[in-house]
Amino acid sequence: MFRSALLILSGNAAAALLLLARNLIVARMIPVADYGVAATFAIAMAVVEMASALGLQQQIVQARNGDDPRFQAALQGFQVLRGVLSGAVLFVCAGVIADALNVPQAAWAYRVMALVPVLNALVHFDIHRLNRTMVFWPVILTGAVPALLSVLAVWPLALHFGDYRVMLYAIVVQAVATVLISHLVAQRPYRLVLDRAVMAQSLRFGWPLLVNGILLFGVFNGDKLIVGRELGMEVLAIFAMGFTLTLTPTLVMAKSAQNFFLPQLSAVDRSTPEGEARFTHLAMSVLQSILLMGMALVIGVALCGIPVVTVLLGDKYAALLPYLIWLAVMQALRMAKAGPAIVALAGGQTGNAMVANLLRIATLPLCWYIAVTTGNLYAIIATGIAGEALGLTAALALVHWRSAVPLRAAGAPLAVMLLTGLAAFFIPQQTTAQIAAFAVLGALMLWSCGDLRRYVKGKHMSPAL
Prior knowledge:
Layout: H1 2-29, H2 32-50, H3 56-62, H4 69-100, H5 107-113, H6 115-121, H7 126-129, H8 137-160, H9 165-184, H10 196-231, H11 233-267, H12 273-313, H13 324-336, H14 338-346, H15 352-361, H16 364-373, H17 377-403, H18 408-426, H19 432-448, H20 450-458
Helix pairs in contact: 1-8, 1-11, 2-4, 2-10, 2-11, 4-5, 4-6, 4-10, 6-9, 8-9, 10-11, 10-15, 10-16, 11-12, 11-13, 11-14, 12-13, 12-14, 12-18, 12-19, 12-20, 13-17, 14-17, 15-17, 16-17, 18-19
């Protein structure tokens, strides 16, 4: 168990850290305003990806017939179809997107970016199918090696261009490498099938994920769109860098938890009392592990965030320092929603995350009003924190009602994580008092995570059927 968990976490972390290193290197080598333009490339990609995200990678893990070669070929065929459509949409809408972000000079770059969703759609699904049997090396290599190649491409690109084009072509290099590596590590031949029955099944499974993808675009990029449009590219560069630094560990931990626990939860037969007890135990382990990770994020940023940013980015991003802990608390609450989402996804209930993210999206009009009237970045982030707290409340309630998962064992860990956020806000940072408070809260968190402790001691693991 520990070997698999460590492999997943280290693999996801390696890919994420490499991409973070790429962003930091680019930020150091180009002007701040140009980094703001580069940050909009991720937003443009998210626009088209949100409109076609059907969770096909999760479906091949969750579905009972996920190991069937024809089913896999049909999912790959559907993936290519949606990728081509996404690329065409981005190409056609490049000018509109550039104008909406107030960077009309970058319209050509968004047309180049239209290659990326097409390339992403050509990835071999064997890397996801093998997760069903707890084989994770293929998906890890497919994430880490392209990220490394993207980092290595930055230096020659910076010497040649020296502006936002560095990020553009580094992203294209990563996409090309991802396709090639996924095919090199696959076990089955790559086949494409267009099967209407499988498409219909995927649409039934994925339409809530599609809607949730649109909502996630607002969750991940709504604040950045508002800041970039109303406060300018330099402020967006500061804000986007803070997002990157705090969101990267969030995504690593949440993705690792999903990779590790989703096959095990999906394999449980809840029709028997023993199966129901097993599912509840695993669900509690997921929720508690995610809350523990959220707490670790807040503590890490509170104790190390300022020196890390100072060393890595220098004075150019000094304006970011006061906002770090605010962003860390927001990301910890966002990550906490991943626990209920994983449990719900194991039962095919893909609509829970959509409802939770809808509450977060509801705060964006208020963020826009604040940006237009005051330009107060603290108030914008505070509004985001309130929205994430509402979304987490809804996610926990839905997994309790729809999946019949008791939440009593998650109450204490949740309270400890929230107290950690308060300690990060109200106790002076990097002081003896704050360190002592974090130590006490850490001990309380470990004590309260009873199911997670029993899971670790019992070494419970089971592959998906």
